[in-house]
Design a protein that fits this description.
Elements (H helix, E strand, L loop, with lengths): L1 H10 L4 H23 L5 H36 L1 E3 L14 H6 L3 E3 L5 H17 L12 H30 L3 H19 L28
Antiparallel strand pairs: 1-2
Helix pairs in contact: 2-3, 2-5, 2-6, 5-6, 5-7
Length: 223
């Protein structure tokens, strides 16, 4: 399991947002366009505008990922010190960043907020929110669109399982408890601030199921 984590971490977790973005982009575009035409009876132009609005949620997610990862790096550089194996009597050099320390083969000791815990929790919650659109979507079982959406849905489910598995491996093997806890809390805060607060407002990317109360959702997507 540990070796699998190392292999997968290199190709999946390091670019977790890219994998999530790559699958969510076509899923949101296709389902939103179909939802706009079938439920709201929008024309092509208005449906495309609705797609662009919903896809902007991925731009928000990209901004959240970028700002938070930069913040984590800043905190680690601000709180860290470098330990090197220099000779006795050599003048001690002050290092400003982790990168400078590693260039001299040093070990950087700082408060490293778990970027994996943050990103994996945020990506998983975002996928769960976006696939909820299937609860209000009705598509002919024999159509090609149904096949496309099914493939994207299964791929997103499989990706979510990978994120959960990677999250558990990170929780067991890496970082201190406080670093992991803070990473998760930031991920949950980012999800809550967007999908449970901002996206409820008119000037926002909006929710996957606009104008449909959560209490009245009915599962109508044919499998």
């Amino acid at each position: 399991m540990f070796l699998f984590w190392l292999f997968s971490g290199r190709y999946f977790v390091k670019v977790a947002w890219a994998w999530t973005l790559w699958l969510l982009l076509p899923f949101i575009a296709v389902t939103t366009y179909q939802f706009a035409k079938s439920k709201f009876l929008y024309g092509p132009t208005k449906s495309v505008l609705m797609v662009l609005r919903r896809v902007s949620a991925l731009l928000v997610g990209t901004a959240v990922w970028y700002v938070c990862t930069r913040l984590f790096m800043y905190v680690e550089n601000l709180t860290g010190t470098c330990s090197t194996s220099g000779k006795l009597g050599d003048p001690r050099r002050l290092y400003a960043t982790k990168q400078e320390c590693h260039q001299d083969n040093g070990i950087w000791n700082g408060f490293d907020i778990s970027g994996h815990c943050f990103l994996l929790s945020y990506c998983a919650l975002m996928i769960v929110e976006e696939v909820a659109v299937l609860e209000g979507l009705s598509i002919d079982q024999n159509s090609k669109l149904h096949v496309v959406i099914n493939v994207l849905f299964v791929s997103l489910c499989f990706l979510t399982m990978i994120w959960v598995f990677m999250f558990l491996c990170t929780a067991v093997y890496f970082h201190d408890f406080s670093q992991k806890l803070l990473g998760v809390l930031i991920g949950l805060s980012a999800w809550y601030a967007t999908y449970r607060f901002w996206y409820l407002k008119p000037f926002s990317p909006g929710l996957p199921l606009p104008n449909i109360p959560l209490s009245s959702k009915k599962y109508s997507y044919s499998r």
